[in-house]
Design brief:
This protein has 199 residues and is of the alpha+beta class. It contains three helices and 13 strands. 20% of the residues are buried.
C-alpha cells in the first residue's frame, strides 16, 4: 500500500474515531419522568436516566424547578451516575403541571440534562400517567414543601471518588480524559492530512 493511501486510511479512521468519541460521550437523557408524567404527593416517584459511557460524569446533583414560579427544590447532591435511577418521595409539594428536573453540577453551574415537563398532583389522586413503579433497589429521597433555593439538599450521597482520591484535575473538567484523547487524535489527523497534501 502506498504512503498517500495509507495516510488517507489513517486520516479517515481518525475522523471516525473522533466522531464516535463525541457521539458516545454527549449522550445524557432523563427518561423518567417523561412528558405528561404525574407524580403523586405522599408517594415515591422514579427518576431514571441513561448517559454516555465516556463523558467523564461520575455524579451530579438533582434539582426540581417550576416554570411559573421562582425557586428550586434541591433533591440530591452527588448522585452516582452509574446508578441510573433514584426514587423521590413527595410530601406537601404544591400541585402544578409545570415541573421539570435539572441534573447538573451545581458547584460549577454545568447542566448535564433536563427532564420533560411533568405534573405534581395531590395525595390520594389517581394519576392518568404514573410511569414505572419506584425501584426498591435504589435510595429514596424525601422532598417536602414549596420550592426554596435557600434550603439544603434533601440528601447528600458520599463524595465521589476519582482515581482513589476525592476531586483531582479530571473532576474539575468533566470528560477531560476523553477531551485530551480527542485533541490528540485531531492533532495527529491534521499532521497526517498535511503530510498527505505535501506528498
Amino acid at each position: 500500500m502506498s504512503l498517500p493511501r495509507l495516510l488517507r486510511s489513517f486520516f479517515s479512521a481518525c475522523i471516525l474515531f473522533n466522531f464516535l468519541m463525541t457521539a458516545v460521550s454527549a449522550y445524557f437523557v432523563v427518561s423518567e419522568p417523561h412528558r405528561d408524567s404525574q407524580w403523586v404527593n405522599n408517594q415515591a416517584n422514579l427518576i431514571q436516566w441513561q448517559k454516555g459511557l465516556l463523558d467523564g460524569i461520575g455524579g451530579f446533583d438533582v434539582e426540581m424547578a417550576r416554570l411559573s414560579t421562582d425557586g428550586l427544590l434541591l433533591i440530591a447532591l452527588n448522585v452516582p451516575a452509574q446508578q441510573n435511577s433514584i426514587n423521590v418521595f413527595l410530601q406537601d409539594v404544591p400541585t402544578g403541571d409545570d415541573y421539570f428536573l435539572i441534573l447538573m453540577n451545581s458547584t460549577q453551574g454545568i447542566i448535564h440534562a433536563t427532564s420533560s415537563r411533568f405534573s405534581v398532583i395531590s395525595a390520594g389522586s389517581s394519576p392518568t400517567d404514573r410511569g414505572p413503579s419506584p425501584n426498591n433497589a435504589v435510595p429514596t429521597v424525601t422532598v417536602s414543601g414549596t420550592p426554596d433555593p435557600t434550603r439544603l439538599f434533601a440528601t447528600t450521597f458520599p463524595a465521589l471518588q476519582h482515581n482513589g482520591a476525592v476531586g483531582g484535575w479530571s473532576a474539575l473538567i468533566p470528560g477531560s480524559r476523553e477531551l485530551l484523547a480527542m485533541i490528540l487524535v485531531t492533532l495527529i489527523s491534521m499532521a497526517a492530512g498535511g503530510a498527505w497534501t505535501i506528498s
